[in-house]
Amino acid sequence: MATLTQVPNVKLLINGELIDSKSTQWRNVINPATQQVLAHVPFTTPDEMQAAVDAAKAAFKTWRKTAIGTRARIFLKYQQLIRENMAELAALLTAEQGKTLADAEGDIFRGLEVVEHAANIGNLQMGEIANNVASGVDTYTLNQPLGVCAGITPFNFPAMIPLWMFPMAIACGNTFILKPSEQDPMVTMRLAELAMQAGVPPGVLNVVHGGEDIVNAICDHPDIKAVSFVGSTRVGTHVYNRATLAGKRAQCMMGAKNHAIVLPDANKEQTLNNLAGAAFGAAGQRCMALSVVILVGEANQWVPDLLDRARSLKINAGAEANTDIGPVISCTAKERVESLIAQGIAEGATLVLDGRAPQVPGYEHGNFVGPTVFTGVKPGMRVYEEEIFGPVLCIMRADTLADAIAIINANPNGNGTALFTQSGAAARTFEEDIDVGQIGINVPIPVPVPLFSFTGSRASKLGDLGPYGKQVIQFYTQTKTITARWFDDSVSAGKVNTTISLK
Question: Partner of 417 for a Cys bridge, out of 249, 308, 324, 436, CB 3.0 to 4.6 A?
């Protein structure tokens, strides 16, 4: 148990009130650039978890009946509050997570786009109708909310990913219990406070904290109808299996090993800039980071130029000006990344740029790892098979586009991939033949805008429906199909019909 000192305690949000937990188990929230303790976060007690579920269940009775326009206007107000508080939110995020201020604003902005989409719920939650499907018979559908839903979010996007979840769920008429990462919950709590300020009623949004016990409680509780998860493959698989066994809907976005193919005809300067940014930005702590580059043919000659781009990136605390790469989230994360680098060397990959132990004046205790590049990487090596979640790039070779596609399709993950080329024919072949859910053509991190859904595939995803976009409306609503006939008293009733036809 962490020793409590004079730093703030992170609150719980239950039934519209920010409350102090009665937990005896707490964790420090630590600035990864300095090791400064920023706050203490509680591991929610069973009674507090039950209170959150009770509040959400009670609030659902009235929230589900709230006019769709009223719900939409709350999110119109909410997006404005996020914009007005962007600088504060970004500073909080950088302090506890480590990413640069510019990247923190990007984190918040991509979540803000989903909030704006939630404000359009009136157009998204409409059903369908077919008139006169039989004599005097109409059939129509209603998309109605499920009840209490829950979300479990990771440390790497503590603003964006919570905003993927609760705005769409709540806009659809559900109530929500959010469990943010215990490593960086402060910006998530501030976003929850702003949601209350925007008019989200008590009990409609609740926030709890904790580890495995709370995750299991969310999966098991009979009053929680759906669970959304983003995080590691190990935990996501556990959540999906446990939640679905308990009869819940579940969507789990999990681990990745994203590849980019570079053809020799690609725009060299733009491609190199995109590869370096996507591989090393956010210290590689993105589930859509480009961690593998497959150079085809003469593009293999670009390695020295790519290394120059990597060496040019500035490593520093995220709050410092002109920083390109901040620290990884924790000492444990740093140790794991460094261990995998050592494993890559031991397994025969060539370390052409070593980012271990960079010198960062003034931040000697930070969890820093600089850009690291391996060549000669082959399937079977741990640096290729595992999601490193650090600024480590693996470079592979292929003779043809077909050979490169075969490498990617043999990898079990399917979160994202990209092709860099100026050939429309090559791009079309890639789109058709690649077995990955999200594809970029000269776009290194092809996360779709909220008009579309996040569509990772294969081992990167469990569940049929992705976050935000049209798919998440289906996930957070139950479709009811109504077949109705209204009789005209002037028409003869006829005789008894014992068939199933609607004549």
Answer: 436
